[in-house]
Design brief:
There is one protein chain. The protein is α+β, with helices and mostly antiparallel strands. The protein is 21% helix and 38% strand. The protein is built from four helices and 13 strands. The longest helix has 20 residues. It is elongated and about 65 Å long. The N and C termini lie far apart (62 Å).
């Protein structure tokens, strides 16, 4: 399970409404609100540069955060919306939703490949081609996997690894409703070129006959 959920440090914002929001922006803060759970909505703000850095890093709206606000208990949250200036496309407001441990959320989980030294295909010069380095899963907030593990032991050249070949945490399921490909063991480029050439010669011979 995930050992560390990233912290998102915010400040409590004094007042609500457009005036308070404008005051926050003048102070180079982005106003926001935390809602949901069993508590009242909480007006917050975050330094503009901090939020911008998070947004540029990607996956901001699909990452579970540990929200830290001075004077309040830490709580798990996920971003539900980031409003942007229609002209400059810069963040002007954000909404966070509190999560219970039983809440279901969509998160991208990284894929780890193990036992490459036991992979027959790689020993013979094959190449591991990763189609999906991460997979979007529907998971329970209190039971988030740190990663998905793919065991390459015994895999040969030409083998294809599907999501059905991966053991998922209990209660988790992919957001894509089909047996999609995670990776494959492809032939080395030199061997593939030789095979293609041989196939071409065989086709020419067949055509000549």
């Amino acid at each position: 399970m995930a050992n560390e959920i990233p912290d998102l440090e915010c400040q409590e914002r004094a007042g609500t409404g457009k005036g308070a929001a404008r005051a926050a922006r003048r102070a180079h803060m982005v106003p926001g609100v935390v809602f949901g759970g069993d508590a009242d909505p909480l007006a917050i703000q975050i330094p503009y540069n901090v939020l911008l850095k998070r947004l540029k890093a990607g996956r901001f709206k699909s990452t579970l955060f540990n929200l830290k606000v001075e004077g309040h208990d830490d709580v798990r949250v996920i971003c539900r919306d980031v409003q942007r200036d229609v002209v400059k496309d810069l963040p002007t407001h954000f909404d966070l939703m509190r999560l219970r441990r039983t809440s279901k959320i969509n998160l991208f989980i990284p894929v780890e490949f193990i036992n490459e030294e036991e992979c027959v295909g790689l020993k013979r010069g094959g190449v591991l081609t990763v189609v999906r380095a991460e997979v979007e899963l529907i998971v329970t907030a209190g039971d988030i996997p740190e990663k998905l593990t793919v065991d390459l032991t015994g895999k040969a050249i030409g083998d294809v690894i599907h999501i059905s070949d991966v053991t998922l945490p209990e209660g988790a399921k992919p957001t894509i409703d089909r047996d999609f490909v995670i990776a494959n063991i492809s032939a080395p480029s030199g061997l593939k070129a030789a095979d293609d050439e041989a196939e071409g010669e065989e086709a020419e011979e067949a055509a000549a006959e």
